[in-house]
Amino acid sequence: MTAHLKKAELHCHIEGAAPPALALVQARKYNVDVSGIIEDGAYVWADFSHFLKCYDAVAELFRSEEDYALLAEAYLTELALAGTVYSEIIVSPDHGNTIGIGSDAYLRGLSAGIEAAKAKTGIEGRMIITLIRHMGPEAAERTALYAAKRQHGLVTGLNLAGEERMHNVADFARAFDIARDAGLGLTIHAGEMAGAFSVRDALDHVRPSRISHGVRAIEDADLVKRIADEGVVLETCPGSNVSLQVFPDFASHPLRALHQAGCRVTLNSDDPPFFHTSLQQEYEIASQVMGFSDDEINGMTRTAIEAAFVDEATRRRLL
Ligand code: ADE
Ligand code: ZN
After folding, report:
1. What is the number of the ligand closest to the CA of 268?
2. Sorted alphabetically, which InterPro entries does this protein's record hold (predicted)?
3. N or C: which end of the chain has fewer CB within 10 A?
4. Binding-site residues for substrate
């Protein structure tokens, strides 16, 4: 059992954390038909591309600053109840533009939710702005320039999510340079829907301190050694990977092998209700299904806090 263990998370997409019950409330509020994406109280999607569409449809049910404040507060409060002291939520100001409230209102709402959860429970939250790969490099650079203004104090990093099989990582190098120059932490989705080459490209062109997923590095032993030697932190999300059929089951998931090879790994939920998981459940899977000891799991939590995009005073307090 892992209920008693301290937890920390580096990787959860905030719109992907909306439970179907909340999405239904939002759908009623805005009079939207969600019968195509929610059935019997669960999200329905068939494959990764379909999942991304379902994700966007859920994101469009949150349409105001207040909606986003409540979403962040609810998610972080639930995490805190499960023993979580720190969470980085992946946010997409582009969604703010899609729903018409704009990036600033979107981030103000999320910031208010993070502060409210902290006031209630003590949990620390930060935001990682994500570029959306299938929107292309030009849109990515615009978003990176926006992130680099650093107008919202809880934004501390930049990520790249979306369809990994589109574009080359090199196409996004300038966007990441902009963020690096602004002092933001860098992480990038790689080695999830594409193979080891994608992780290698991410390391070569972006030089991030963390990789979102990165698990398909296991296809290349030299790359695994490089990740271990360079101390790059992997934000692994086993429940997501099995749900999206990146690996057929937990027995064939490479978390144990990566850990054994000396890679710095962490546990994360990605888009929890879409993948029928939660951060607590990821800790349970690591313990009960993959056989990690409490000491090993505490090591992963420590790694997450060490790799967090957070100021040093907060990091010391969390450790
Ligand atoms: N956006 C939301 N969830 C994602 C995932 N697992 N991979 C890439 N982009 C995403
Ligand atoms: Zn993700």
Report:
1. 2
2. A_deaminase_dom, ADE, Ado/ade_deaminase, Metal_Hydrolase
3. N
4. 271
Active site amino acids: 192
Cβ < 6 A, ligand 1 pocket: 13, 16, 55, 161-162, 189, 192, 240, 270-271
Asked if residues 161 and 143 have their Cβ atoms less than 8 Å apart, the reply is: no
- 135-164 pLDDT, tens digit per residue, is 999 999 999 999 999 999 999 999 999 999
Q: pLDDT tens digits for 72-122?
A: 999 999 999 999 999 999 999 999 999 999 999 999 999 999 999 999 999
Whether the CB-CB separation of 32 and 313 falls below 8 Å is answered with: no
Radius of gyration for the alpha carbons in the chain, expressed in angstroms and rounded: 18
pTM for the whole thing?
0.98
Distances (CA, A) of 36 to 18, 39, 43, 282: 17, 7, 9, 28
Q: What pLDDT, on the 0 to 100 scale, is given for residue 207? A: 98
Instruction: Indicate which ligand has the atom closest to the C-alpha of 193.
Output: 1
Q: Write phi, then psi, for 230 (nearest 5 degrees).
A: -85, -5
Report the topology of domain 10-17+65-318. Answer: TIM Barrel (3.20.20)
Binding-site residues: 11, 13, 189, 270-271
The ipTM is 0.98
